[in-house]
Every structure is written in C-alpha cells, then in structure tokens.
Amino acid sequence: MSDRVPVLQVKNVTRRFPASDGRTLLANNKINLEFFPGETLGIVGESGCGKSTLMRMILSLDHPSEGEILFKGKNIAELKGEKLRQHRRHIQMVFQDPTLAFNPKMRIRDIVCEPLLNLNVIKPSEKEAKARELLEMVNLPGDFASRYPHNMSGGQRQRVGIARAIALEPEVIMCDEATSALDVSVQKNVVELLVGLQKKKNIAMGFICHDMALVSQLSHRTAVMYLGNIVEVLPSEKIHDGALHPYTKALLGAIFDLNMDFSKKIESIESEAPSPLDVPVGCPFQNRCDRCRDICKQENPALKRMEEGHSVACHLY
Fold this sequence. Notes:
eight-stranded mixed β-sheet, Rossmann fold, alpha/beta, 12 strands, 317 residues, 10 helices
C-alpha cells in the first residue's frame, strides 16, 4: 500500500467560521485524508460532525482556514478564476437529492450535457447523441433524454445525477448521502452502478454517509469523524472486528442486523455531542466515553498509526 500514489490529499485542513459574541465555530480540525484511484473512502459520523463542510472544501465550494487540499500535488485551495473553473472537471459531485440538484425546467439532455457545453468539450449539435450515450452508461434508456426530472422516479433521477457527474471524465467523485433518499432495493442498484463505473474508469470516490453498514460494504477504507475530527481510519473489511476507537465501536453497536445476537443488550451513547461552538479542551469525545482518563481532558489525541492502513486518535492506544 505504501507505494500507492494518492490522486487527492487533504493535509492538516482546518475550517473555522465566525459566530456571534466573538466566538468561533470549529467545523474541521486538522483533517488528514487520502483518496486513491479506483478506491472508495467512506466518511461516516453523526450529523454536524463536519462531513459536508469537508466535502465542500474538496469541491472548491469553500476554502480552508488552514491547510492544503492537493490534487496531484497541486494545492487547489489556492485556485481562482479561470484556473478554478477548468479544474472543476477533475472533481465532481453526486448530490443527496437530485430533485433539488436539477433545474425542473431543463430536459435531461440539457442537465447531463450542461458541464460539457460550459467547458466546450462538445458542440451543441452533439448534445443529443452525447446525452443518450451517458444515459445508457448508467443503465437508462437513451430516449429519457427528452424527459423532465419530474417524469422520472427517484432512482432514475439519481442515475441522471451520476451520468452528469461522470460526463467530464473526472478522476474524483464525491457522493453526499447519494443513496439515503432511495428505497433499499433502489439503493442496491445505485451502489452497484457506482462500483461498476469506478472499476471501469478507475475513479477515486468519497462516500459520505450515516449508514455504517452500507459504508463498510461499499468502501475500501472508512474514516470516522466526530465533532470536526478524524478519530479513526481503517480498512473497511476490518471495521467490525478491528475498530479501536470507542466512538467507532459505538457506531457499530447501533447497527441493526437480522443476524445480530438479539440476546445482547444494545448499548447507547449517553449524552449529546458538544456544540462546535464550545469544543472541550482535550479529546472531543471525552464527555461521552466511559473510558475517559485525565489526559483525555487535557490533550486532544493525534492520529497514531497502529498498523498498515489503520490509524486511531485515542489516548488508550
């Protein structure tokens, strides 16, 4: 694994937002992540942990307060104007709700071909043929090109969103809860489509999700976020038996499975996560951890490498 070269690196990225009364909201705190070609990095955590803020910075929709986001070694956080516009073809997005992501007055052919026309990749006369090609690539009939979004089901609209994301042949695709609004049977089809396209085109993918079970099955590696911090990164195949951080274990304990041991009591995490406006000194998980020690209240643990591909931020290790 050590000889692999990441296509995208997030290095010591911190994002702060000014708030009322002179306070500061800490959304991301010294985030370090790597995205490799042909692999999916799952990013999981509770609502408000900073997943979407991180995603917005990767997509250059926001900028870090500190740190770098490197695409093939170049800091894209510094790009502006035409250079930023041209860069956007390399990192694309599949949104959570395609209904809100699409202009309801545009036909599907215009939706999927809009980025191609904006960057002069195709001519207007080529739009119809290209739209049909992209739709067939995501297992939709080519004649759907003449439809409007409201004439399609949720699963079909999400396939259109995937078609638009791959139109520019990006090297990185970020999926923000891309299956959460779909029925379980449709989720399976969309996930299989994403996996197939990734293998075919060797795309690096970031998959942001609340569903720990889905992430562990879909992704190659999983990063667990809590209150703006990455607390653990490990191979997804080892997550059920090899997770170390108390928060990761708590998330795994909340998974409902038909094959689970129903005689075993389901443990819950006591109390609420602190506000990002009032992050405690030390470990951010300290007030919800039953193994908290004195050092946990004084020092925020850094990510430590436990073994190849597995790092954890916890004073217990």
